[in-house]
Design goal:
Length: 390
């Protein structure tokens, strides 16, 4: 048996709270701007839900700061006052401190809204340069010393964490599979938890990331080959897929359904005839990583898996083509994205490498080129010489 008890159909396992005043009629002070905000939400339907929420949050902050002032009466002074309010939040010791990044995004979102607002009927008399009233001095966004790189385990440590995870109950096996698949496919938490059972093919060692069904970044679709990492990761995932299949779950069902769906048999769980929905939050992914790190000093987030896989690429003697394939398999259009955002060295790693440099002197070690790379190099040189001779 996978568990017991009647299943209540919900798509999350933890209690969540929705920020007040985000796109709800009457949420602002007096609700005097709700009609125009409703129109804006219709216009902003082109954005993802997360992007829409961020825009609305910035707009509501602006509205709250002005005491619910009707937007049709906005002045340049209102913009200047809110700009100064945000600037004060960046100062050391601020009552409600904000990071430069948070302020920069809030300003950008609000400027977009005000530019749109000035084109709407009843608001065309607003100052044309109202969005510019929010402009900040460049020094406000000046970068301080870079923050310490996010910590992530190396592959051996990740394997050790997986190996010691409990595996007695169905929820234990789900936790192991979630943790393992995050590394096996270098998946974001949202994309991971929204996969369907049929999206993971143990026979071909593939993950189908369908942007139409999964919550992928920017709706990106991608077929991901399992990264060549220790078999323990594959075994944990395949064990879970086999368990789900034996319980009668179908390819259209969520790969990781809520815990209360584990009744031992899909049709007896009370979930109804339709596909089992994916959970709407990433709480289960966060919980799985918390379980993996429960006896460790280091506590890794789900996003650490992508950093681990990116760092592993740099540890291996890969050809240029292999490095490109590795990055693209992570969902990155080019290697620069991988290099810029993932697998960065910690200060300790950097210092260690500089204190114990390679014994090579003079010329750096040269990697042997493959025949295909040699041909491509020669072709490139000849093409350049021909172009210059014209």
């Amino acid at each position: 048996m996978l568990g017991h008890g009647r299943v209540e159909c919900c798509a999350h396992e933890e209690k969540t709270s929705v920020p007040a005043g985000i796109g709800k009629p009457g949420a602002g002070p007096g609700g005097r701007n709700d009609a125009i905000l409703y129109q804006w939400q219709r216009y902003a339907g082109k954005f993802s839900e997360k992007t829409l929420d961020r825009h609305l949050s910035a707009i509501r902050q602006f509205e709250h700061f002005l005491g619910g002032k009707p937007f049709e009466t906005l002045t340049l002074e209102d913009g200047h006052a809110f700009r100064d309010h945000l600037k004060s939040a960046l100062k050391p010791g601020a009552e409600a401190p904000k990071s430069p990044s948070t302020v920069q995004h809030a300003v950008s979102h609000l400027k977009d809204f005000l530019a749109w607002l000035g084109k709407q009927k009843g608001y065309r008399t607003l100052p044309r340069d109202l969005p510019d009233a929010l402009d900040m001095p460049r020094s406000v966004y000046a970068k301080a010393l870079p923050r310490a790189p996010r910590t992530y385990p190396d592959l051996a440590e990740a394997e050790a964490l997986l190996t010691q995870m409990p595996k007695y109950r169905a929820i234990d096996l789900r936790n192991r599979a979630i943790f393992a698949l995050a590394f096996l496919g270098a998946l974001r938490a949202d994309a991971l938890i929204s996969l369907r059972l049929g999206d993971v093919d143990c026979a071909t060692r593939r993950i189908i990331q369908d942007g139409r069904a999964s919550r992928t970044k920017n709706g990106k679709s991608l077929v991901i080959a399992w990264f060549p990492i220790p078999e323990a990761f594959e075994e944990a995932v395949c064990a879970w897929v086999a368990l789900m299949a034996r319980a009668g779950f179908a390819p259209e069902d969520a790969l990781f359904p809520q815990e209360r769906a584990f009744t031992g048999y899909r049709k007896a769980s009370g979930l109804g005839p339709g596909p089992v929905p994916a959970m709407t939050s990433t709480h289960a992914v966060t919980h799985a990583f918390r379980v993996a790190c429960r006896n460790q000093h280091a506590k890794y987030s789900p996003h650490a898996a992508k950093h681990t896989i990116a760092a592993e690429r740099d540890k291996r003697a890969l050809t240029a083509a292999e490095r490109k394939a590795w990055s693209q398999n992570m969902g990155h259009e080019n290697e620069q994205i991988t290099d810029t955002h993932y697998g960065k060295l910690t200060d300790a790693q950097r210092f260690d490498l500089l204190e114990t440099p390679s014994q090579q002197t003079g010329q750096a070690a040269q990697r042997a080129f493959t025949d295909a790379e040699k041909i491509a190099l020669v072709d490139g040189v000849m093409k350049e010489l021909t172009a210059r001779g014209r």
